[in-house]
Design brief:
alpha+beta, Methane Monooxygenase Hydroxylase, Chain G, domain 1, 7-stranded mixed β-sheet, 4-stranded antiparallel β-sheet
Length: 370
């Protein structure tokens, strides 16, 4: 009995230890989650409780957007991932303090502490939202610096996924796509007015993106309907992306050219059955190319430049099979002379000029005029 009671007591202690460990882990997890959510707020939760009616002029805030890395470009979902540094600078006398009393010319604080500091002085904490944000914004670091004369700055480094709704693949793979990073003020334009912080805006030197060449970054200001339903200021970093054409030349266009030449070479075979076999194999190859290309793009409601070329290659390959069958039937029906004349005409004129016409039409329609 003593042994049994000892074992029972041991099991009770082990069970209690497990319960306490689980409770401790749960508490730590909740605290960490709360800390991440607070740190991820940035200035987005800022200061609506303060009384701003006494402001006669809008608060001028200069915004800078620097994209340090492009983590991915998902053209099927029409979005991209970025690691960016966002900066804001403004001056508000309501934020000023006595540097002699504080013992330093500036104060450094986290955004939640700054929001409380601004609310106590009825000052604006110039919060913002990222208009084309598609996922959580993970803020790695964020800080607010206030100088004794009321000058203030906010800086954050964060990563997020951004929508790119202006993608247009009509000229694919010679397309140039528009990328945006849009910041909109939480406040109406009569309270906060945006300008561009040019020296801290643009693209980094090492973006880490291999598929695209990203260039022509420009900062633009405009006004849109904000979260309040009123007109708010917006600053956007716009930049363009173009593809490395060498990849598409080597992986797609060169193999397609080889298949076209192989199809043309079949006309020099006297055995029509062999022609049909080779043309049928080419037909399957063009189908495979079509699947590979469609897998990289969203389900579009229009044809791209490469789609147009591929569809015509598919049609021509099918026509070659039918043409070879017709020639074979003519030969076996005793009209071999007519079959050879038709064959010679197709080899010299129809096939090469037909392909040249298709390519010329595609270039003019999709790349020049489009």
């Amino acid at each position: 009995m003593t042994g049994a009671s000892g074992v029972s007591g041991c099991w009770i202690k082990i069970t209690m230890f497990k319960i306490l460990s689980a409770v401790r882990f749960l508490v730590l997890w909740v605290v960490c989650l709360w800390a991440v959510q607070v740190s991820a707020q940035g200035l987005a939760s800022g200061g609506y409780g303060a009384n701003f009616q006494t402001r006669e002029t809008p608060l001028d805030v200069a915004i800078g957007i620097q994209i340090d890395q492009i983590s991915f470009v998902d053209q099927k979902s029409e979005n991209y991932g970025a690691v960016a540094t966002i900066r804001a600078r403004w001056s508000d006398p309501l934020l000023a303090f006595d540097k002699e009393e504080y013992g330093r010319e500036y104060r450094v604080m986290k955004p939640p502490a700054f929001i409380e500091y601004a609310a106590e002085r009825a000052a604006i904490a110039p919060g913002f939202v990222i208009q084309n944000q598609q996922s959580n914004r993970w803020i790695h670091q964020s800080v607010v610096v206030i100088h004794a004369n009321g000058d203030a700055s906010y800086s954050e480094k964060s990563s997020l996924t951004l929508q790119a709704p202006d993608f247009n693949f009509t000229k694919y793979p010679f397309d140039r796509q528009q990328f945006k990073f849009e910041i909109v003020s939480l406040y109406p334009s009569d309270l906060v007015r945006y300008s561009v912080l040019s020296e801290f805006s643009g693209m980094g030197d090492k973006l880490g993106e291999e598929e695209w060449i990203l260039e022509n970054a420009q900062m633009q200001t405009s006004r849109v309907t904000g979260l309040t339903g009123l007109e708010s200021d917006m600053v956007a970093l716009d930049f363009q992306g173009r593809r490395h054409i060498m990849y598409y030349t080597i992986r797609i266009m060169l193999p397609m050219l080889v298949l076209v030449v192989v199809s043309w070479a079949t006309f020099f075979l006297d055995e029509y059955r062999k022609r049909i076999e080779i043309a049928g194999a080419n037909l399957l190859m063009f189908i495979a190319f079509n699947w590979v290309i469609s897998d990289d793009l969203p389900k579009l409601g229009y044809l791209t430049f490469l789609d147009f070329i591929l569809q015509w290659m598919f049609v021509v390959s099918g026509a070659i099979v039918v043409f070879s069958v017709v020639l074979s039937r003519l030969k076996w029906s005793g009209r071999e002379v007519m079959a050879r004349k038709l064959d010679n005409y197709a080899v010299k004129w129809v096939y090469p000029l037909g392909y040249a016409g298709v390519v010329a039409f595609a270039v003019s329609k999709y790349l020049v005029i489009g």
